[in-house]
Amino acid sequence: MPPSLPKSVLALFVVPLVTATLSISTPTQAAETLVADGKVVTYERLRDTDTPAVGFQMDSNGYRNIYLLDCENRRFLWVKNIDLRTGRETERPKSAEWKSMNARSTVTNAVYQASCPGSRTTDSEFNFNRTQGTQGAWGWNGPAAITSFSTLGIKLGVTFLPGRSCDEALFFVEAKQKLPSLGFQIDGQEFGYVEPEFLEIDEGFSSIFALSKNGLAALKRGYQLRLESSLGVLNVSLQGSAASFNNAYNNCLASYQNEQTMSSGTEISLQEALQPLEAMWGLDSSEGCLDTDWKYRVFIGRHKWTDQGGMYIDKEKPPQLSFYEGYCEFGTARQQGNRINLESHCQQEEIEFDGITVIEIVNPNLINIQIPDWRGESTLHRCPDYAEIPQ
User: Fold this and answer.
1) 98 within domain boundaries
2) Is there a single domain that holds both residue 140 and residue 115?
3) CA separation (Å) from 245 to 173, 216, 221?
4) Is residue 352 within 8 Å of residue 345, measured between CB atoms?
5) CB-CB contact of 147 with 138 (8 Å)
6) Cα angle at 251 between 245 and 253, to 5 degrees?
7) Could you report the per-residue pLDDT of 165-203, keeping only the tens digit for each?
8) Does 23 fall in a domain?
9) Local structure of 133: helix, strand or coil
10) Is the dihedral of CA 71, 106, 118, 14 positive or negative?
11) Cystine design at 346: which of 13, 136, 206, 328 (Cβ 3.0–4.6 Å)?
């Protein structure tokens, strides 16, 4: 259930929910700002709510978008879009649904960390929206947090399991031989010995066992891991493990949510899903329609490119999505109300990525879209000159 909101709040936002109507007004002294994903975000904790809730707004390309964040359930709701030049307001449709936060909800994650109780963490521990990276002695790649000893031929780490809702994790040690027994000591605290299972890999074996929640917390918060095995004693720095574990968990959560998304809704054909949206779209504002360099243009439809860089409609080709230096091709499509979930394979520049593209149809000329590996959700405005594209 959404948080029960007060009948009157002198804050930034109005959310027409179950028992409350809040109104947009001048930010109060309690309002704070932060910078996330290159955008200045104003946020304020809403008072007198049954569960912790935060209202936040961000301005981008002449538009102001307003959201409500439900701290307890880690989800957010788009409330309103305001054109700052004309004052025109677009309200959320009644069918709009709460969206769960994931690793790519860059701005929402930043607001969550800054304002929701019990979630404050130093900025250095969070680097959202990256499928891989490094910090300190540790790095992350997808749902795994990893540290390596290349001179010894050893790699160890923790991988979260999407098939277990990311609530469970495995510890692994990759080496040239099996390690029948592993002993752990973290900052002087003994965790005893375990007998791992083995998985054969290209350059040896991976010794694997299920990690307890206490062990995971100690690895994340500790400073030094002492690992004992038949190879001897290995002292492992835990510097950067918190950031790596958080990012690996977020990537696992994104993968799990993708699986959940594609298992629900009614399956429809790509043609049925995307033909009403076949058009040129401006990214973040209708001004993107005028961008001949394509940095702020997105095209949805059945199209091909000429050798000279021109576009034409090919009615025999499956619909796809084209954007600056990249594209997405689609597989299965499922529809839930005004949301379309598309199984996607995408490429931008030389990087390929798979996942779920989510399209929310606000009205025929305005959609919200979330593409795998993009930074959160983007707004697309239908361009009026689509008819100029050759058929």
Assistant:
1) yes
2) no
3) 16, 9, 10
4) yes
5) yes
6) 100
7) 788 899 999 998 898 899 989 998 998 899 999 988 887
8) no
9) strand
10) negative
11) 328
CA separation, residue 362 to residues 78, 88, 272, 381, 387 (Å): 11, 15, 17, 10, 22
Q: Locate 226 and state its tokens.
A: 């002492």
CATH number at residue 228: 2.60.40.1880
Given the structure tokens 């076949």, which residue do they identify?
A: 278
**How many domains is the chain built from?**
3
User: What are the tens digits of pLDDT across the range 41-74?
Assistant: 888 888 767 778 888 888 776 778 888 888 888 8
Q: What DSSP state is assigned to residue 2?
A: P
pLDDT score of 158? 93
Q: Examine residue 14 and state whether it is found in any structural domain, yes or no.
A: no
Full domain range(s) for residue 310: 266-388
Are 257 and 295 members of one domain?
A: no
Q: Which one-letter amino acid corresponds to residue 253?
A: L
3-state secondary structure (DSSP) of residue 126:
coil
Compute the distance between CA of residue 346 and CA of residue 355 in angstroms, rounded to an integer. 8
Q: For residue 157, name the pLDDT band (cuts at 50, 70, 90).
A: very high
Residue 6 counted as domain residue: no
Provide the phi-psi class of 180: left if phi over 0, else alpha when psi is between -120 and 50, else beta.
Answer: alpha
CA distances for 190 relative to 86, 186, 187, angstroms:
64, 7, 9
Residue 373 makes CB contacts below 8 A (sequence gap 6+) with: 104, 131, 346, 348, 351, 353, 355
d(CA 244, CA 267): 36
Among the candidates 234, 262, 290, a domain finishes at 262
State the residue for tokens 């600056």: 324
